[in-house]
Amino acid sequence: MGTITEVSFVSAALGRDYEYIVYLPAGYEASAQRYPAAYLLHGRGDEMTAWLNVQDLLDGMIAAGEIPPLIVVMPDFPSSRRGGYYIDSAYTTLDLPSEPVETAFVSDLIPHIDATYRTIATREGRLIGGYSMGGYGAIRYALAQHDLFTAAIVLSPAVYTPLPPVDSSARLFGAFGSGDNPFDEERYQSLNYPALFEAFAAAEQPLYLFIAVGDDEWKHPAEEDQYHDIDFESHLLYNRARRVNYIIPELRIYDGEHDWTFWRQGFAEGMRSVARFLSTGE
Fold first, then answer.
1. What value does the mean pLDDT take over residues 36-41?
2. Which of the two residues, 226 and 102, has the higher pLDDT score?
3. How far, in Å, CA of 218 to CA of 254, rounded?
4. Superfamily covering domain 3-277
């Protein structure tokens, strides 16, 4: 079985301790080999501990040889009352403290992980995953930070287009705000995945993308918001990604809701789907 440890280090970008959980595969301490790494982003309101729901799946898939042994990093983001959407917020009102989350992830967390553990510190040695708000973060990082990740697992992504519905947490907690405005439409659209496709394709680096969603995800009661249902938005993400050079996407629709019963199933199939493309250093 792998080991789980809660860790923290001082983040220069955040000016505070950056907390994460790290999963080290069975045999890590006794070996000298390097391992690929998976970074898993939690959903809004959750903490890093939520991802412990997949610890047994990781142990089982690694032991069965279904995925390679790997290091798994589960960062904690309390930014914007845990509604930070994994971006650098420009919202400055103090009632909802915002932080440069993306900068901290890229400039502080990944270098720290590569310096602390025996990772394969290349694009081919990393994948990114997330559910709900973390699904937004995973697809954004896979596209915007295309030099860092070769694969992504995106579960029930909160990737509303062209703008989120009026009751979305994307509007309420300042992640996409600017100054004293908690939600800036132009900023939201500039950061969301459709705006990232052109630059991604120009980099000419393949991305193995696994998208999964439940058919019983919450449905907006207002007819005008039906196209913001997460099952609809997930299929639209897949449909658009299929049209982008160098993205190799898969889509799964499960009998499930916005919860860990479905996310466990999606995570397991997603790992089997994309982890085979990770470099193992052999």
1. 98
2. 102
3. 14
4. Alpha/Beta hydrolase fold, catalytic domain (3.40.50.1820)
Q: Report which of residues 218 and 128 the model is more confident about.
A: 128
Task: Tell how far CA 229 is from the center of its chain.
Answer: 19
- Give phi and psi for 233, each to the nearest 5: -65, -35
* Tokens, residue 165: 């519905």
> What is the structure's pLDDT at 282?
61
H-assigned helices in the chain: 55-63, 79-82, 101-103, 110-116, 133-144, 169-172, 185-191, 197-203, 230-241, 260-274
Question: Is cis: bond before 162, omega within 30 of 0?
Answer: yes
What span, in angstroms and rounded, lies between the C-alpha atoms of 139 and 210?
A: 10
113 φ, ψ (degrees, to nearest 5):
-65, -45
Q: Whole-angstrom Cα distance, residue 170 to residue 225? A: 15
Predicted confidence band of residue 166 (pLDDT cuts 50, 70, 90): confident
Q: In whole angstroms, give the CA distance from residue 117 to residue 262.
A: 31
